[in-house]
What does this fold into?
Amino acid sequence: MREIRPGEGWARIRPEWVALVVTMDDRNGRPNIITLGWTMHASGDPPMAAIAVGKTRFSHELLKETGEFVLAYPNSRMGEAALLCGTRSGRDVDKFAETELEPVPAKYVRPPLIRGAVVNFECKVVGTADAGDHTVFLGRILAAYEEPGEKEILLNFGSTPSGKRYLTGITGYKGQY
It folds into this structure.
C-alpha cells in the first residue's frame, strides 16, 4: 500500500452519479441549474438528501437565500446539458434557455422539476454544515417523481488522459468534453 493525496483517492472512486440541482434566482426571475457530483441519500425517515455546493458558486448564494431546491438525476442523454450547467454561471446564462432541458412546475417548491430526468426530488433546506470550500445543504424531501421509461442515470467516469470529462450511462449516451 502506498500513501496518496486525498484528491487522488477520490478520483479513483468512479463512476459517480451526476446530479442537477435547480434553485431560484429571484433577482433575474428565473430558475438556475448547477451540476453536482457530491450528493447523497441522508435519511429514510424523514426522507432527506444532502448536496455539497462550492461556496464560490452562484447556486450556493441562491440556496442560502431561498432555502429550497430540486435534486434531479439526469438520464444518460443529458450529458451536454449537464456539462453546460456545470461550466457556465447562472449569473450570466439562463441554463434552461441554453439547453434542451424542459422545466416542469413543482408542487411544493418554486424551482421546477426537469422533464426526462430519471428522478426528481423537491427539497426544503433544513440544515447546513460547513465543509471547508463547500457547504453541505441538508434537504427534507417533500416529494419525489420518476420519469416512466427512463432508467439510465448519467454517470461521471472522471477525466480522460486529455483532461476532458467522460460522461455516459451504462449503455447509452457517451461523450467526452
Observations:
- Confidence is low (pLDDT under 50) at residues 172-177.
- The CA atoms of residues 49 and 164 lie 29 Å apart.
